[in-house]
Write a structure and sequence with these properties.
The structure is a single chain. This protein has 15 helices and no strands. By secondary structure, the chain is mainly alpha-helical. Helix 1 packs across helix 6, helix 6 packs parallel to helix 8 and helix 8 packs antiparallel against helix 10. The protein starts with a helix and ends with a helix. 34% of the residues are buried.
Length: 395
């Protein structure tokens, strides 16, 4: 059995696969059968409901003439598994305005309280999903740490297993139609969590993550495979879901600000940058002609690492493959002298929320819920007649 099959069995056992029901929810997603899938399901549905509340209902103080968004979003339409529609006719537009004026306006207190409850649910669903994915990765790190001896092959197997776990998480988010802005924030924090675990393993000189050439090469290979998968499969999905182009340079300042993509956990750069500490450490361990490197060259190779971290990597480096020389003693002395007393060699994971509900709503493309047909599973109750009438008037 290959490594991917073993990991799939391990993750399936940890998730408790095999149970769960069917049916559909607000976003058209199937009911959950696993923990990760369950949290994706609720995150997508709560985000959908939050967007609907912002579009359909208005506080009493706001003018009733405020119209809903003009165009139907592909993201929202796909959440209901609805077919695409052509441009609405003038008669449909009038019917939409008439129906919108009949919407029961919520009082300001009720409206704000309901939005606050939705915000709490959104935060909880995001945190639960992040914890579920992190738990899978932490399980793999624990298995790696249980290895009795250091082995580059163990590190390669770990990266193969981690990639399988991340692919499974992304597939769950795609299947449940989690908004791209939330998926991007979550992936960034999950990768940052992995960066903290691996880099701290290097700093603590753990037996399962030694500061050696072989381990550096294994880590670099795993990071390159992860980077290739992110760029080929994940980035296009996220950029399309947020109305962006493929390249980072195509992200406008307004869109990035609305999506909350700046600051801690921000995604102005590539997703692989969430692993920047581990990535730069691997590049340093695999650098050629280390004995000829100056302190300036070492620092320029690893701009995210402080002098204390660089001192540990350069001082404890060992080439057990070719027996080549490490970094020059003069460089080590310069690094030690340049370090500050308050610098810590260990990283701390960011546990906060990298977004606000307002930013999430603002990042979703404009939608028009009145052009979306009702789901087929709605019961034949009179309360849903206005939705069916709306569907009959579609061309």
């Amino acid at each position: 059995m290959d490594i991917e099959s073993q990991v799939e069995l391990l993750l399936a056992a940890g998730r408790g696969e095999g149970g769960g029901g069917g049916g559909e929810g607000l976003s058209g997603a199937e009911l959950p059968a696993t923990r990760v899938n369950a949290q994706c399901y609720w995150l997508a549905n709560v985000a959908c409901l939050m967007v609907l509340v912002e579009v359909v209902y208005k506080p009493a103080e706001k003018p009733k003439a405020a119209a809903a968004a003009a165009a139907s979003s592909n993201w929202f339409t796909s959440m209901f598994q609805a077919p695409s529609f052509n441009e609405a006719s003038h008669q449909q537009h009038q019917h939409q305005q008439h129906h919108q004026q009949q919407q029961p306006a919520l009082g300001s207190v009720e409206f704000l309280m309901f939005k606050q409850e939705l915000a709490v649910l959104l935060d909880d669903a995001f945190l639960e999903l992040r914890a579920a994915v992190n738990l899978e990765l932490q399980t793999l790190v624990s298995l790696l740490a249980q290895s009795p001896t250091a082995s580059a092959q163990h590190m390669r197997e770990f990266w193969a297993a981690a990639l399988v776990s991340l692919k499974s998480a992304v597939a769950c988010m795609q299947a449940n139609r989690v908004p791209a802005v939330l998926a991007r924030h979550l992936l960034w924090q999950v990768l940052h969590f992995l960066d903290v675990r691996l880099f701290n393993g290097l700093m603590l000189r753990s037996h399962w993550c030694p500061i050696t050439l072989a381990n550096g090469e294994a880590m670099e290979q795993g990071l390159l495979a992860l980077e290739a998968w992110l760029e080929e499969h994940v980035d296009p999905w996220l950029h399309a879901g947020m109305g962006m182009g493929r390249g980072v340079g195509s992200i406008g300042a307004g869109t990035a600000a609305a999506a909350g993509l700046g600051g801690q956990g921000g995604q102005h750069g590539r997703l692989i940058d969430a692993l920047q500490h581990t990535y730069q450490a691997a590049l340093l361990l695999t650098a050629k002609q280390k004995a000829r490197k100056s302190m300036e060259e070492v620092v320029s190779m690893c701009p995210s690492l402080n002098f204390t971290q660089l001192t540990i990597l350069c001082s404890w480096f060992e080439d057990e493959v070719y027996g080549s020389r490490g970094f020059d003693r003069a460089v080590l002395q310069q690094l030690r002298g340049a370090g500050e007393d308050y610098e810590s060699e260990l990283l701390e994971a960011f546990e906060g929320l990298p977004f606000t509900p307002t930013a999430v709503v603002a990042a979703v493309p404009p939608i028009n819920p009145f052009l979306v047909p009702p789901p087929q599973f709605l019961p034949p109750a009179p309360a849903f007649d206005f939705l069916r009438q709306q569907q009959l008037q579609q061309p």
